[in-house]
Amino acid sequence: MKEKRLQHLEDYIHSVGTVSLDELCEYFNVSKNTVRRDVNQILEKGTIQKVYGGVTSVTPALIPFENRDHTNHPEKLKIGKQAAALVEDQDLIFIDSGTTTRNIVEFLSSSQQLTILTNSLDVINAAVAFENITLITIGNRYKRKTKSFVSIDDLHILDKYNISKAFMAATGVSIAHGLTNSDILEYEIKKRIAEKAQAVYLLADASKFGKSTQLTYAPLQEVNVLITSGTLSDEYHSFCREHQIELYICQ
């Protein structure tokens, strides 16, 4: 219970930015001594810091794509390989922009006939080499930091595609706040795709869990398949069992 309370407390601080200890006491219906002990424990992680009368979220600036690509690279390759193994002939799949999702294409079979819908420049560049892949691109404004195309004049244009599998990325993943993202233009696309797809596949290495950013594009319980690496806490294992989320842990 304490671990769950700590996670919910940390997620709440990240969601509101800055909050007083009194507000935390009222919101979580606990004593100030309990809040102080919990806050001190979270402070050790470096994800929040003290301010006068309360605490504030420490949200790092968006790391450029080239730098993020080197973080946990072996794990991301394994996740991408596992995701590619779940693609079936005649699928229409969405591949999200991100340094993990981009790895899917290199592990796809050259004999499968499928359609890829994407806003990722790296996915586009990789997919053009496959004669068996029909490529559909979305987004009309290029975002250099994430090497993705964002902004769609009419999001309803996505409704015409029968997306069998959406392979999604997230900046942070938590039980309290679900799948989160920091950019409003990317958020709009992610949210629409997650709502439209027949199945949502979340690709996230272990470092993404227990974190959240400003915008939730889908609750965690709407994920059908979770592909990750490393070790997840018992809380996430229990959550996946409770909500029938198929879990793949790539070692």
UniProtKB/TrEMBL annotation:
Which Gene3D superfamilies would you find in this protein's record?
A: 3.40.50.1360, Winged helix-like DNA-binding domain superfamily/Winged helix DNA-binding domain (1.10.10.10)
Q: What SMART domains does the entry give?
A: DeoRC, HTH_DEOR
Q: Which InterPro entries match?
A: Carb_Metab_HTH_regulators, DeoR-like_C, DeoR_HTH, NagB/RpiA_transferase-like, Tscrpt_reg_HTH_DeoR_CS, WH-like_DNA-bd_sf, WH_DNA-bd_sf
Database matches in Pfam families: DeoRC, HTH_DeoR
Taxonomically, the superkingdom here is Bacteria
Does the entry feature the keyword 4Fe-4S, yes or no? no
As one GO molecular function, the record gives: DNA binding
Sorted alphabetically, which keywords does the UniProt record give? DNA-binding, Transcription, Transcription regulation
- The chain positions of domain HTH deoR-type read 2-57
Q: Which PANTHER family match?
A: HTH-TYPE TRANSCRIPTIONAL REGULATOR IOLR, HTH-TYPE TRANSCRIPTIONAL REGULATOR SRLR-RELATED
Q: What is this protein called?
A: DeoR/GlpR family DNA-binding transcription regulator
Tell me the classification of the organism that encodes this protein: Bacteria, Bacillati, Bacillota, Bacilli, Bacillales
